[in-house]
Design a protein that fits this description.
The complex is a heterodimer of chains A (404) and B (440). Chain A has 404 residues and is α+β, with helices and mostly antiparallel strands. Chain A contains 14 helices and ten strands. Chain B folds into three domains: 233 residues, P-loop containing nucleotide triphosphate hydrolases (Rossmann fold, 3-Layer(aba) Sandwich), CATH 3.40.50.300; 39 residues, no CATH class; 81 residues, no CATH class. Chain B is built from 15 helices and ten strands. Chain B has a six-stranded mixed beta sheet with strand order 6-7-8-3-9-10, with helices on both faces. In chain B, strands 2-1-4-5 form a four-stranded antiparallel beta sheet, with helices on one face. Chain B is elongated, with a radius of gyration of 29 Å. Classes of the chains: A alpha+beta (404), B alpha/beta (440). Chains A and B meet through α1, α11, α12 and α14 of A and α2 and α3 of B.
Amino acid sequence: MRIQDLAQLSTRMFKTNPLRTWLTILGMGVGTGAVVVLVGLGFGLQQIILEQIVFGETLLSLGVSSTGAQGLSLTPETVVEFEKNPAVLDAAPLARFPALITYKGLTGNVFVQGVEPPYLRYAGVTATEGTVFEEADAGDTNSIMISPATLKLFGIADEDVKAFIGQKVTLKLLVPADDGTDNVNEIVIDKEYIVRGVTKEQGVLNVMMMLPELRNYVGIEEYERIQVRVDSNQNLPIVEAKLIEDGYRVTALSKTVEQASKIFQGIQVVLATFGGIALIVSAIGMFNTMTVTLLERTKEIGIMRTIGASPNDVKYLFVSESVVVGFLGGVTGILMGVVLGLSVNLLLNIVAGQFGGQSVKLFSFPFNFLAFITIFSAAVGYLTGIFPARRASTLNPLDAIRYE
Amino acid sequence: MAKPLIVCRDLSIIYNQGKSNEFKALQGVNTDIFEGEYIILFGASGSGKSTLMYSIQGSLPPGEGTLLIKGDDIYSYPPSERVYFQRYVMGIIFQSFNLIGSLSVLDNVALPMIFCDADRTTRERRAQSLLDRFGVGHVSHKIPAMLSGGQQQRVSVARSMVNDPKILLADEPTGNLDSVSTQQVMDKIDEINTFDRRTIIMVSHNAAHLSYAHRVYYLKDGFIVREVVNPQRKQIKPVKEGETIVTELEQLARLFPYDSVETLRVKSLVNYLTQDFSFDQIIRLERATGMFIQGKVDRDAYIKSLVLPLERGGVEVDTKEARRMASVTESLINNADDIRRYRARKDNNSIFFSQHKLAERISEHLSQKYNIKLNKEQNTNITELIADRVTGVIEDDDLNQRLMKGVKSGGLGLSEKEADDITRYFEKVIAQGVDVSYKN
């Protein structure tokens, strides 16, 4: 039998029994829809977290800080030493000093962080508003980035953050005195800095400027932190182990991501299980329908067999019918799932907006996932159809034709 | 000698073998069916005729024996290859049409070609031309449920022919049809046999169809009890000289299809003892008389057809005899009309009818045949008797007895022979004149 004829013969049920066919498709659709929504939720949650932390270079970086215990400190020499390791591509330091920031007469305590542009990449620092320091900005002496909490310090509301870009602030560094006392020297920087960007760091009062600019005002003997960029994934644990052995404290973002991913995979499995149960229920319903269809069509099978349909023709007819139902069930389910997910998302965002929260994408439906669901539901259709089909093909034509 | 197309040797089929409801549907059946033959498998329900046909069709594997189609044992192939025979060698027609309700008439006819991978244009052209040929081309885009039974069966004949098979199997194709549709379908099947030269194997229990076939296999309780050759058709199966000759039994078998060979032999002999006419003459006489009774021919034409020689389709009786027959028939018909009128008026409670007219005619008959004139009392009595018989107050035996009784006791005082004759004549009249009703 040719494909187009098979298609024509196996879609007759839309004409002869439209209600039952569409109900079966709907049943299948609800099951797949449940899977789509729940797994989509899992994907969405995962993405919300990972979107914040995952960048290519960030994952291949190790954050090194001193434990302080063994008198190990991070100095410019340490940076050079780190870079000697063949597996290390680069090491970027961060220096930190307490400071006072003044904006329109308001003054507050912050930390000034001096970094080089690579550090920002390795640490995954991004801007919610304005721009991040690029490689070209390495020699920048006029602009700074500040954390959102610093804005709160000045009483800037969330919606005014954008307007704050380009504003000017002044800084006063508080540098510990060299004389061994707890005294602090106040170094006044006699110029105004333009705010070029707002970082995403939550809950810290930070101001970020270029390291060379910081050096203009203060001598840097010791770094707070060094980001080590490792050349490859394989070398990451090796370098990490070496650093830990040397007595440094090492944090690897890749680990956090890995753990987060694992947790979300777990969540997804749980969600998919619930969806799967719904899918199994609808598959059983569909199996039932196919079996009833078989009984109903027994006579027709008999007729077809006596006028020249081979057992395989009969089998293909049944299987393709259930694959069509399964496939359409999958498509319906995807439609229902995506529409439901997006509506819930929209609703949540409206509610969140009312209460001043951030808008999020709680559901995510990657194309591959949807494609998989479509194929999977067609496969479920195939499986529910194959047994009735096999039975149909082995019926004795004469018994079948006399079946009433 | 040409080889037979279908050969059955010692074919046995047993349903539910070894169980308590074991049923021997076919027992040691032997048949040779030749290409181009029209074969009818005849028998009552449960005789095994359908079993034999479906076994040939490929749906019922024989328990024992061999079945060869074109020299091939079709049951030696797996079902997936056996399908070849159902596609290209055999077409099938069912009693209940078995069209697929969800497909158009055109698709139904084209369906067997779909299974053969024919492309759309080819199969639709072929299907349409067949539908046109069988007179249902104008309904090709309707669904089967919108067609009459006769149309549906012609559609299914078209379907059976769509792959141009060598053999056409028909399972009581006219069982669900009215007489007009039956005739149309039988004519089409006959045309397929005589014009397209296809082999036909038809299962039937309608004796009226037997004249179409070359040969009829009579089945009873799973056995082939008789094979009857139709002398009116030129035989295809090679007949060895002297081995089987066409006898009167073959002719009788078609007249009395449900009787055994023994009964037929008795019938043949008794016919010789009691009748001057042969069965052939009787059949023709029946046909001519039927036309005369129904008023389709007049008296002269009736006499003419009786006188006409056998070879020209007549009964071949002499003119005097023909005239006698005509007048007897005519008076019988007239008497019957009187009876019909009498019964009609009786039902209407009419007071205008009297039995005198009938009595007059009966007396007339008596006087003609025995030269008896009835006196007044006898006349009164016969009028009474006739009324009683026609209204069903007395049976034919009572009538006979009363005719022999004395005039004083309400009879006519006739002799036994006269009474018998009158009774017989009058029963014939009643048979003609009383409408047979199955309503009650």
